[in-house]
Amino acid sequence: MDTYLFFGMILFYLIGASSALILNKNDRICTYTSFLSASIASVFGIIFSGSILLGNDFSLTLSGSPILNFGFFVDKLSAFFVFAISITAFAVSIYSTGYVREYFGKKNIGYLCFLYNIFILSMILVVSANNAVMFLIVWELMSVISYLLVVFEHEKPQTLKAGFIYIVMTHIGTGFIILSFLIMAGSGGSFGFETFRNAGMTMPPYLKDIAFLLALIGFGTKAGIVPLHIWLPYAHPAAPSNVSALMSGVMIKTAIYMLIRVSFDFLGGGVWWWGMLLLIIASVSALIGVMYALMEHDMKRLLAFHSVENIGIILIGVGVAMIFMSSGHPDLAAFGLIAALYHTINHAVFKSLLFMGAGSIIYSTHTKNIEEYGGLIKRMPWTAFFFLIGAISISALPPFNGFVSEWLTLQAQLLSINLTDNIIKIAVLFSGAGLALTGALAAACFVKAFGISFLALPRSAHAEHAKEVPAPMLAGMAILAVMCVALGVLPFYVVNILDSVSAPLVGTNISSRISFDLTIGTLSSFPASISTTWIALLVFVVLPLPVIIYMLMSRTNTVKYETWGCGQPVSTARNEYTATAFSKPIRIWLGGIFRPQREIQTTYSDSPFFKDRVIFESEIEPVFERYLYIPVTWVVLTVSRLMKVIQTGYIQTYLLYILITLVIALIYVGSGA
Amino acid sequence: MIAKIALVILQLLAIIALAPLLSGIIKKIKAFFQIRKGPGIFQPYYDIAKLLQKDSVVSQNVSWLFHAAPIVSFVAVLTAGLLIPIFITELPFGFAGDLIAVVYLFALARFFIALAALDAGSSFGGMGGSREMFVASLVEPALMLSIFAIALNVGSTNLGYISQTVSAMGFDAFSPYQILAFVALFIIAIAETGRIPVDNPATHLELTMIHEAMILEYSGKQLAIVELGAMIKQLLVFSLLANIFFPWGIAQGVSAAAVIIALLAYFAKIVILGAVMAMVETSTAKWRLFRLPELLSISLMFSFLALVSFIIVKGG
Fold first, then answer.
1. Residue A600 is inside which H or E element, if any?
2. What residue in B sits closest to A584 (Cα-Cα)?
3. Total number of domains in chain B
4. ipTM of this predicted structure
5. What is the DSSP letter of A42?
6. A456: which chain B residues are within 8 Å (Cβ-Cβ)?
7. Which domain holds residue B210?
8. How far apart are CA B148 and CA A116, in angstroms?
9. For the residues of A550-574, what is the DSSP string, one character each?
10. Is the pLDDT of residue A526 over 80?
11. CA distance B59 to chain A (A)
């Protein structure tokens, strides 16, 4: 049964891809067949992963050879990620049938649809591969396809730059991943993931440390941890918005999957400093991500920086779980891991929703600049409503889903009181303050993102003439908006499933110790509980009060009048607060990090008292690029220039090099024997 | 069951009824320190009643969000009120949310009011919303660390449990870490209730105000709801201080006598805290906005010290 579902899923993605190429001539038919078969495939994926999450693991061997054993292995962890990919892909595919109309007649639709289907398929295969070689093949496929999608609008010069940064960074990452796999394969004797597991038990500790660090750098690059995140704010906004939703929502999660797989499954949890290192990197990523998001005025870059932030929050949970695991608290490790996995699915849902919302705005206004939006809530009411749900969710406000996972993460940090080392304890608890600051800044950022974009008066003609997007796009957003609410108000079921995901990794089950209202009292005698279900119900208990007050006073009238401006007429968009102004207090407060620079040029007409025009320019310094990447690039370029000496370009010289190498190799082998 | 429903209704009524009174009392005490007569302590009730009867003047730029925001934030604050022990530790809905949930419910209320501030399209609203979110970002890390310090000391983040445990401790509750956490939370309470030196509730001068700037466009019954919501939030923040650190007299079980004593004790504690707040307000001047990080880093330092001293003393 599972086999049929699995191949049905793959088959429909392939049908979607091939039909896109065959029906290339007609944009409309091509769009519908291709995206509909993608959504059918993702329904297969949802059922498939559901059956595994509630049932048994799935494994399938394609070819049997002792060293290379190609096949698929979908355990509960993989199935969870297949589920996250499929549910997002389902909503995004429906959204895409409307969204790609923007490209009709301008771009090659068949090419886009083909890449889109193969891209989702490659992500599914990444999380279900059972072999390092096969994994690297599909991992590279995913990277290359996503690169082609990033440069889809290649007529824009900044897109090519974004694509270049992305492809370079992702290949550096893959290089580290290959090294890490080679170390584990060297100890285990084969490239199968099951031998990696055995290798993890027998490897000497220093090799484990090296393998973990290489994997952290390799997968961290894909996940977008600071300081390896710089490609993310370039690449994600450059892609078409439906692809951005998938890249930010689920592609970077495949790296989280492999980080959990390598550190818990292959290497058995590791030592305390792995977790501490991850916790520090994660806290820094969360803070840096949200800080730069606040300063951003490009809607899609803003959301991309929030991906850096949320990857940080997920990895805080993973890091805390590692610390617990290494200090002999597998039950608390399970709790940390549940928090991390919960935030993973939450982020997949609300980030894809927000990217689709951003895509809808861009579809209607043809600009990414927040400062040119405004008043869209009246012109695009449904988009505004779904975006608002996404904004509340990502700001971790109750009773939506972001709150549940953030609460679980905070409680996981509090549970560190059970550790023995005081320094680790204080460090973990202090990272809770970082998480709280992250949450508050995220809320500030989304007040800005939603308020400046959707409220008040339109700030440009683009926004003035915006119209609501077609129904399929709204349907795609609605699906994920419902998911945001469902994951928020029904946390117990989710935690139960996530417990079965984490149980094989940490070796213990804790769902019996978390009661229906998420009371975690029986974990280390630390009673704490929330019930977002009841918070949502209580809202309805108290809702009648203001309503009654309103009803009693229904005799009063409401008069519409101009906005108050101290007696002066201010009802033009030029008087509105801008996104730059909104984030200014925080820019000044954290000026040491942002290093804001501004330039004001005033030209006067005749007398110095009458200003003709004022030009204001403001930017913040890209610290990581300037102080980390430019020096590294310089070193690489200098070394390459020095290498040029031996690169003569004559074939005789190269033959000589080969001869010299051969002689040295023979001497080495001869002396060794 | 009926007792529980009665408790919920009693708690809601107590919160709504006491919130304006607390504002009135604080104003009266402030007037006393400033050698003024000041308005009567029931003035906030008259203000709200008056506002409810007035027509609303609403900006023509606004959307549905402007009308929904007062209700959403009022409901969020009142929901938080059902999670905070006022006069009884065993809250019927105490399991539904802990201290962290209360903080995030306040954040939900703030989120909507800040959005509504941007809706009318005036710079005042933008300024207020921007500053409110700035101050909230300053508050949050210190707040979370003091929550952690209290939670570790008492052994839970659930408010009913905290009150119960602390009142069982008696005078042992006055440990160094608890006092440090109280100082940290008191500074946070100043910021959360929008009082001097963070914000000035009495001013309409656009350069200094935060909360008043955000709600400038509201009038009539919407303004009444917003003001009442702000007063309730102030009462709840005071209740948190009172019943986390000094839960004396709070009812442990459901009996009429215990509840009446608890209500009286609660009222006395709230008034004393209000008097302290009025003294702080009278004796300091409003700080510049960009000096606020200094104030809240003091709070962060105190909460950090509370946490560290707890871990060093108790060892965990």
1. strand A596-604
2. B130
3. 1
4. 0.96
5. H
6. 61, 118-121
7. 2-314
8. 46
9. HHHTTTS-EEEEPPPSTTS---SGG
10. no
11. 5
